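Internal ticket #5521
Category: modeling
Description: The requester needs a full-assembly model to guide mutagenesis choices. All entity lines are attached below as received. Residue total reported by intake: 568.
Assigned to: D.W.
Attached entities:
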Amino acid sequence: MGKYWAAFSLSIQQELYYRASFLMERARSITVIIAFYAFWSAVFQGRDTLLGYTRSQMFTYILGMNVLRALVFSDKTWELMHEINTGKISSYLMRPISYVGFCLSRDAADKATQLVSSILEVALAAWLLKIPLYWPAHPATFAVFGLTLALAIVLYFLMSYIVATFAFWTSESAGPRFCFELFLEFSSGAFFPLDVLPRIFQSVFSFLPFASLLYFPLNVFLERITGPLLARGLGVQVFWAVLFVWAARRLWERGLKAYSADGG
Amino acid sequence: MRGAFRALFKKENRIVPAVQDISFDIAPGELVGFLGPNGAGKTTTLKVLSGLLYPTSGEVEILGFAPWKREKDFQMNFSMVMGQRTQLWWDLPARETFVLNQKIFEISDKDFRERRARITELLDIGDLLEVPVKKLSLGERMKAELACAILHYPKILLLDEPTLGLDLVMQKKLRNFIRDYNRETGSTILLTSHNMADVEELCKRVIIIDGGRILYDGDLSKIVERYAPDKLVTLTSSVPLDIAGLKALGKVISHNGSSAELEIPRKDVSRVMGLLLAQVPVVDLSIEELPIEEIIRRVFLENG
């Protein structure tokens, strides 16, 4: 375990090494919170509910989305792709450390720094702007929310890991990766609750893995998804997780075979 | 990306023989030079030995392990340093990567402290470990790289171009270090280099490959007898030399007024020297082996 802890701690140091870009990222994220808050405040003018969300639910969605993004959508698979393309991955494959384990430690470091800063930002925004928040009525909701969130993190890791394996076959894996991220932001509910979309899209999206990442756990927290819908959502998460584990393992195996340690 | 999708369902086979009929045994504690021109298959062979590639046919066994299985007990005793590749974390001081390797290789705190002190002293890199790796010069980085790679005292150490891009003083230091490490720990070292000084100073035995095949495997001293039947005679005369007369004695490599270089068959050296001294008023004379570069070049020419 010591080695993964060491990898985690080095990654944190690495993260903090680029303080300027870290702070810029924070500034960007605060701006986004304020923009979303202003937008939804205007939309809510003179109404109590919208798209089935109460005011506090909607604002909790927006702030919660910020925190969840930090926790779910943070990863270091760009580095992983870089390591495959430059051949640096060889130096890890030769050492007695599991590469997946190493990636997980590195991701965890990213998640830890992102989470801490996003909680601070959200708390600051909620306090300054006096944003009303929704807290679950049933204590059990916290447990179920934790479960859906854990599955979302696993799903996202598997998906980004799978996209990263493309680097084994092409040195231009940045393109697919970029498209993946863009589509992900949209279809996971990071820009707006998916309830905004026409019903047909909503039903399609509810079976795709993307909505499982943010939209689903957030709505579980807001207690808008309960009972059979909750069970179905968990089923969707587990189904995709199992499928992605299979695909990730297979692609990784095949990728390593295709990998001839390029670059010397 | 298409490849990625295809790979999900179909197994791909591509056969490009990079090395074949390569067969050698290395005894524990040996320090062997592994030579060959660019594209000879050196790096491919090292990758097979390190477990990054697995051989489509043939057998590889190191310390009783098949490297490509990447078993922990093998990797714990193995290390490879590649001149143009780094395992150090670029943005952090090298000391941080040392700690990572300490954990990866399960080195006790006591051993770690002792070894780090000893290695940093020998390589003279004490202060450099506190500086972010990207701020180090190439030579400094290479030393830190080597130090990091041997903290776990690997029984097997592969060095791919360890002196690449280093100045002469630095090269010398690194070579001394490699020799001491080999002697003190009894580890087995395989070294590739285009720098013949590395090979001459460090390796008793060399393996020469080209086109994926072994051309020579044996003592470096024997290669000299086999591939260099001539000795190099350099002479300076007090008067301008008669080149035509010299050509009758041996092969004239170069001449410049009153001095010349000749290649003379080993067995004829004493006879020719007698003639030469009788004919020419010699001021200065030396009889040497051909430079090792030239000998290796002949091995390639003859077999290539």
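Resolution: model delivered.
Comment from assignee: Chain A has a mean pLDDT of 89.
Ticket closed.
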